[in-house]
Amino acid sequence: MTDGIILQTRGLTKEFRGFVAVDGVDLAVRRHSIHALIGPNGAGKTTCFNLLTKFLKPTAGRITYNGRDITGASPASISRRGLVRSFQISAVFPHMTVLENVLVALQRRSGVSFQFWRSLACLDDLHGRARDLVEAVGLSEYVGAMAGDLPYGRRRALEIATTLALDPEMMLLDEPMAGLGQEDIGRISALIRRVAANRTVLMVEHNMKVVADLSDRITVLQRGAVLTEGTYEEVSADPQVIQAYMGSGHA
Hints:
Layout: E1 5-16, E2 19-30, E3 34-38, H1 45-52, E4 60-65, E5 68-69, H2 75-80, E6 83-86, H3 98-109, H4 124-136, H5 152-165, E7 170-174, H6 182-195, E8 200-204, H7 208-214, E9 217-222, E10 225-230, H8 232-236, H9 239-245
Parallel strand pairs: 3-8, 3-9, 6-7, 7-8
Antiparallel strand pairs: 1-2, 1-4, 4-5, 9-10
């Protein structure tokens, strides 16, 4: 499972007008693992994600992916290298079908911009792959349904399908369980476990049962800095972590 480090940061820092949101974070994510980034509200998790996916520029520090420095890279360039983020808020086209959403993502992967004035018949060569992805995330019965009509949990599954269509080597999942009911949490957890079988996953997640169930390694942030790191058993028994989460309702 651990074939070395795929994503690494050294001294990653982000300041906003004197406020240090991310403070010297050293992170090492092992290839083919599921790594969770957790912490109380305001710990800097989302800012850290935004730095890793290049939506923010770091004030200081270095980010390497597959041994290459991507600190100054653009979001599009790291996506092409196989580092793809799935957003906390479902990012699908609500007035297109499930199949059409996946087809759009597949065409994006092929490097061709989607042309809305063209017939979907032009994409016939991608239909087989699209249907395979729809089936892989358990949406076969919804293949012709409008994405906007899907139950919330099914929309999250569709979002994962569109992320998989980009053929990522590493997926960054931003609160994949946010807003889900218990049944959907179980379904999406199982889906993440399946898609992580031959990929690397880094996720921000508040649901500690999910973190315990899925994660190989956990990094805990507090006030923008790394508080501790380890397995769930190690982290959950750490007095500093217990203190950080006291009264937060997450531990």
